[in-house]
Design goal:
alpha/beta, 2 domains, eight-stranded parallel β-sheet, five-stranded parallel β-sheet, 9 helices
Length: about 325
């Protein structure tokens, strides 16, 4: 990469990275309220104790004492599981022996995968009781996991895990493409340094134009245009999506330069720089979706960054030529 584009403009990425740091701090401070994971030899939810959010407990002996409560769904995996408290949600149990005491009060469904299931006569279950392991212990685990999938996919830890996994995947993809196409991606990154506002404007107008054309086609399809044009529209959106992805990869390198400079690690290999930048960019986009009340921020951030990346691809013709800003004419 040319020396004149190694240093990004000050403040261009600072605000975004600062927001990411603040959000990660919020994740750590509110994780207990949104969900919990416990891995111990023994676990006891004592009387009077309340846990909020979806819970996952893995232990040898698990006990939910009377007058304890869980405000959310809970998954219990252990050898001996005893539930005598209140659960405001669904309960999934995978155990050798499961005891549902007389004091138990479950508002949702109860899914049991246990060799021995003992239920008290006074135990309350508001939903249905499913004994998935009644016939085959080998198939039961798969059935229990399938029954609990709906709970897992909406849990805090699942959303956080998918965000981190997606960020690592995009970082690896950015590093790989940078190693394969160093010059085109370098030209696109240079255009972002030189004219970020112009790149964002061009990308935004391109997206709006594509949406407008698709809307017009969708309306006129009901009137006159044949369906035979539909593959052309779909191919156009596919091409636009691939160009937008290429723009995201182009954004990874300047982002990685900024992050590594702040860490005192300047002039790193482009492949490493792009990998770090790809992870940070993907987290910046996906971490907002962990909480429902910040999901709209992720849409705005994603649209803004996608516009800048797509604009860089267009300005450089997919990296085939460098972008040279036009100099304003001087009076003579």
């Amino acid at each position: 990469m040319p020396a004149n584009i190694i240093r990004p403009r000050k403040g261009l990425w600072f605000g975004a990275l600062l927001a990411l740091a603040l959000l990660l701090s919020a994740c750590q401070s509110t994780a207990k309220d949104l969900g919990g994971f416990s891995l111990n030899s023994a676990y006891t939810l004592t009387a009077g104790e309340t846990r909020s959010g979806d819970q996952v407990v893995v232990a040898q002996d698990i006990t939910l004492e009377p007058d304890s409560s869980v405000a959310g769904d809970i998954t219990l995996m252990g050898s001996q599981v005893t539930v005598r408290g209140q659960v405001d949600g669904d309960v999934i149990v995978v155990a050798d022996r499961f005891v549902l005491g007389d004091e138990a009060d479950i508002s949702g469904n109860l899914v049991v995968c246990a060799k021995e299931f003992q239920r008290g006569a006074a135990a309350q279950v508001g939903g249905t009781i499913k004994e998935e392991c009644a016939r085959s212990s080998r198939v039961s685990v798969a059935k229990a996991v399938d029954s609990g999938w709906a709970t897992w996919r909406d849990s805090f830890w699942f959303r956080l895990g998918t965000a981190v996994a997606g960020a690592l995947f995009f970082g690896a993809l950015s590093a790989l493409l940078t190693a394969i196409f160093p010059r085109p991606l370098g030209r696109m990154a240079a255009s972002i340094y030189r004219a970020p506002a112009l790149a964002g404007g061009v990308g935004c107008l391109t997206i709006l134009l594509a949406l407008g054309v698709s809307a017009v086609y969708g309306l006129s399809l009901l009137l006159v245009l044949p369906v035979v044009l539909l593959p052309i529209v779909l191919l156009g959106w596919l091409a636009l999506g691939l160009l937008a992805m290429l723009g995201w990869v182009a954004l990874a390198q300047p982002t990685g330069v900024y992050v590594l400079q702040r860490l005192g690690l300047e002039r790193q290999p482009p492949m490493l720089t792009a990998g770090v930048g790809g992870v940070v960019l993907a987290l910046l986009l996906r971490v907002w979706g962990i909480f429902w009340f910040t999901a709209w921020i992720g849409l705005i951030v994603g649209a803004a960054l996608a516009s800048v990346g797509l604009g860089a691809v267009i300005l450089t013709r997919a990296g085939s030529r460098p972008y040279a800003p036009r100099e304003s004419p001087t009076g003579g």
